Amino acid sequence: MAVRRTPKPKMQTQSRREKIITYGEFQRAQEESQLRIISRRPKLDHLLRSRCRVAFIIISVLAMLVVVRSGINASRGYALVATQNQAEVLEQENERLRIEIAKLKAPSRIKQIAEDELGMDIPRRMYFSHEH
User: Fold this and answer.
1) What three-state secondary structure class fits 52?
2) Quick one: which of 85, 63, 66 has its CA closest to 74?
3) Which sign does the torsion angle of CA 113, 119, 125, 128 carry?
4) Max CA-CA distance within the chain?
5) What angle do CA 13, 17, 20 make, to 5 degrees?
6) Poorest-confidence range of 46-55, 61-70, 112-121?
7) What is the pLDDT of residue 127?
8) Arithmetic mean of pLDDT over the chain
9) C-beta separation of 74 from 80 below 8 A
10) Are 121 and 115 in contact (CB under 8 A)?
11) CA distances from 111 to 45, 101, 108, 121, 124 (A)
């Protein structure tokens, strides 16, 4: 007759057992993990960084274009106002000259010049000759 043996219960391995540590060991372990976290440099996404640089450069160039364009528009506005003021001055001068021309063309002035300076008189009689 064969005797069956029942297997003995296995003892727990080191990895499954709970390890009891002192407060000092716990504090040291915690400091080491913090040091590892601090000393580990975060990995940078170089593609994202280069895209951000390109976006920044594009936005900067566009902003500069807006500033330059507004400066050009402002200078054109000042030039336009100066031209309008000059046109007003010329229109006033033109109106003054038209009034002066009207005064110089006045028949009474021409008659006075003819009588005083040229010694001309208005004839008392008028003679018409009809030559054929």
Assistant:
1) helix
2) 66
3) negative
4) 183
5) 140
6) 112-121
7) 75
8) 82
9) no
10) yes
11) 99, 16, 5, 9, 15
Per-residue pLDDT for 57 more than 90? Answer: yes
Instruction: Please check whether residue 23 is in contact with residue 29, taking contact to mean a CB–CB distance below 8 angstroms.
Output: no
Give the pLDDT confidence of 70-124 residue by residue, as tens digits: 999 999 999 999 999 999 999 999 999 999 999 999 998 998 988 888 888 887 8
CA–CA dist 10, 16 (Å, integer): 12
* Structure tokens belonging to residue 90: 């010329």
Q: What's the DSSP call for residue 17?
A: S
Amino acid identity for residue 117 in this structure: E
Q: Is the whole model's pTM more than 0.70, yes or no?
A: no
Got the DSSP string for 80-127? HHHHHHHHHHHHHHHHHHHHHHHHHT-HHHHHHHHHHTS-----SS--
Number of H-type helices and E-type strands within the chain: 3, 0
**Which of these ranges, 41-45, 49-53, 54-58, has the smallest mean pLDDT?**
41-45
Copy the structure tokens of residue 49: 């960084």
